[in-house]
Amino acid sequence: MPSQRPLRQKDLLGLRGVPREQLVRILDVAAGFRQVNERRIKKVPTLRGRTVVTAFFENSTRTRLSFELAAKRLSADTLSFSASTSSTTKGETLLDTARTLDAMRPDAVIVRHPASGAPHLLAKHFPWTVINAGDGINEHPTQALLDMLTMRDHLGDLQGRTVAIVGDVLHSRVARSNIFGLQTLGARVVVAGPGTMCPPALAELGVEVRHRIDEVVEEADVIMMLRIQRERLGRAMMSSTEEYAALYGLDERRLARAQAHTLVMHPGPINRGVEISPEVADGPRSVILEQVSNGLAVRMALMYLLLGDEGGGDAAA
Ligand code: NCD
Questions:
Q1: Distance of CA 312 to the CA centre of its chain
Q2: For residue 93, how many other CB atoms are within 10 A of its CB?
Q3: Measured by CB atoms within 10 angstroms of the end CB, which terminus of the chain is less buried, N or C?
Q4: Which CATH fold would you assign to the domain 20-138+295-307?
Q5: Statement: the pTM of the whole predicted model exceeds 0.85
Q6: Of 112, 120, 152, 266, which residue is the catalytic one?
Q7: Phi, psi (degrees; rounded to nearest 5) at 45
Q8: Does domain 141-291 fall into CATH 3.40.50.1370?
Q9: Is 105 a catalytic residue?
Q10: What percent of the chain has pLDDT over 70?
Q11: Does the C-beta of 112 come closer than 6 Å to ligand 1?
């Protein structure tokens, strides 16, 4: 078991403003938890008797499965709520759903919601730990943590490394959390995509904004490709899928310009043949499935640090 001190806070809502030491501690604890997932009996008693609810008001495969499995591997009782099969479809509000969850006395609620700020609202009104599993276009902190752990595995210290985030950055909570976390760890972040998805205003986040992917492929240590968030696009933001793939998709020809050590990442779900070609997604530089495995370890680490017996939960930041 990792012996690091718990986080002295109740919730994890985002990576903006989270200090470097705290990020490094979460990543170190996550790296320690990986060995539990390699054992024959993949379970530790850390959260025995505690209740973790996953409340997903938006679809998910990886994030939800890995939060559930992480809680189970820590011996917590798990409940899962999904908007599409719940009374949300009968018009129940977020706060009324949360009051119902509260009546069951959970210790932690993992929230994904289409509205930016929804987890913050719950964290303010309820005593349980809230972990943001993606809120609208705002943040997806656990995804960025697992991304940073994967990068650190391959590149070591991220200080001075260049991470290129390519595609629909404007609507990506994954991009925002990575931008905040990576900058705290000293990395340089370059974003690239069409002007409608990568507007100049993104420079306010401290990133360099480019519009040609070829420029960034050559200098990047990491190329993170993003899915076009069609569900969040208010209006047509690209002319056609073919044109998007030709201008911004990562294929083998384009990747041939990258440095030998450059990693290819994607948070999933991938749209093969749009932002990433099948050969690149399944190719030797792709660490997409390592990202998924690291997601489990990061989520175990966070629940351990926020809920573990040694503290947390009582000293809300
Ligand atoms: C992302 C999300 O939901 O924000 N996926 C994930 O959590 N792995 C990215 C996406 O949906 O494109």
A1: 22
A2: 9
A3: C
A4: Rossmann fold (3.40.50)
A5: yes
A6: 112
A7: -85, 5
A8: yes
A9: no
A10: 94
A11: no
